[in-house]
User: Fold these one by one.
Assistant:
Number 1:
Amino acid sequence: MRVGVGSGNPVKRAATERAFEAADRSASVEAVAVESGVSEQPIGDDETIRGAKTRARRALEGYDVGIGIEGGVADGPDGRYLIMWAAATDGRELGLGSGPQLRLPAGIADRVDAGEELGPVMDEVVGLSSVARKQGAAGVLTGGIIDRESALCHAVAGALGPFLTEYYASDAAPK
């Protein structure tokens, strides 16, 4: 099976490979640079999901399955949260899954609310470059308990559900 991941980010590609390996599915996963169709810093679940869906559909061309992964920020209990959504499509079926939601520290949330993108803010806060291509905000905010790859792997796994089990074959729950 050939899988196109709608991003040039190696962490998103690795997360997708990891999800397919965990599902015992053989897949050749390739990064495909596509536009998300949403802002650089998606705000809210709706925009973030729209970006993941757009990336999946655009990555599908020439592949058996297209995967789109989008990170964003959204309001949640007691502040702003880092969110992540994944979409998977074969052109007929579309699956969605989300990763963990992590509350942003107030100072970081304030900067994002002022219009800055989370990735560069995290780079500055931790004094490293390309945090989004390494442990990500998820790794920084959890002290390394989870990293961006594992968080995104869970989102991709959720999106793959309709392709891995029969439970999505109809809207009715199995008896």
Number 2:
Amino acid sequence: MKGKRLNVLELFAGVGGFRLGLESSGNFQVIWSNQWEPSTKAQHASSVYESRFGAKNHYNVNIEEVPISNIPDHDLLVGGFPCQDYSVATSLHNAKGLQGKKGVLWWSIHNILKHKKKKPHYLFLENVDRLLKSPVKQRGRDFAIMLKSLDDLGYAMEWRVINAADYGMPQRRKRIFLMGYHRSTALYHSLEKTPQKDWMLTDGVLANAFPIESTTAPTASLKLEGNLVDISQGFNLGKSLSPFLNTGTLINGKVFTLKTMPAYTGPKMVLGDILQNGEVDRNFLIPKEDLPKWEYLKGAKKEGRKAKNGFSYQYSEGSMTFPDDINAASRTIITGEGGKSPSRFKHVVQSPAGLRRLTPVELERLNMFPDNHTKKTGVSDAKRAFLMGNALVVGIVEKIGASLYAKINS
């Protein structure tokens, strides 16, 4: 394995953020990819992916319907798996044991790992950071189920919540990244032998990619006991806080976790660095007649409102910076970023021609994608914005990929 290019399976591929970040080094090659959006007829993300990387070995089908025998052996499985549905236990009598509302999502990855005879040596996964504390009534249950199922399949794990802007990237985008190492690898045994606090703070793949300055809490540990259904039904019941902090490891069923702070002193990109003011179509300018609506939505409010059931209540919210500060990292891009309608959450910047929304190219730059990566006939500007709202920051993938490859070859 040392020195060789690693073969990658890319699931929930979106428009290819994992692929861009990993293949840029020449140390990884995606040999099979899948992207399927079950809620829409038009498959824009998959269409963009094919236009950039080609259709060979890319599949725009429900991953649950793909036979495991059709999925090639691979060294590294990556995926930013969807987060809108989480697992629920049924009963021990149910053949599947656990299932998501749609039947896809996390369990599609689990199914591949469980049934592949030659399991991938490494995992590289991404999700929203609320995964650590969902659902509300059983804080951390979903993450505990994930960790337990991976432990059962022979993987040691490490995770970190990373905000891209904390490490000089142009967008405040906080996501959890998980790395997995199969027990057949040297990395698994290295993690097993290393004091867990040392792995989290200095020795691990994530610590080498994104250094940590300090910890504000002692290491906490817990044992994931029982089977998946036991954990689903009983984990952390009655507790108001999740036991999982923003940094952690799992090895042999035991979880170590602590709260960490980023350590970064290098250059920092800001929103102003990615703007293309001289090239912006006038369609992105905010019409003067719409400005009062924008100002209202962005402003502070304290007003009476009435719910659909007739219940009256007092609604309040603070003001937002309007227009956005171009001398700081941008706010997080959301899927509703596109379109002309006024919105509290869309970005607005001051340009020589007046206040305007961000362009698709600027949204791509905030996620560190190449300019016009999502430009394709039939893909509207609003849809391009939606695709970036679902994407990850390519620069984070690049750094973690480089750290993983260096660790494998050390």
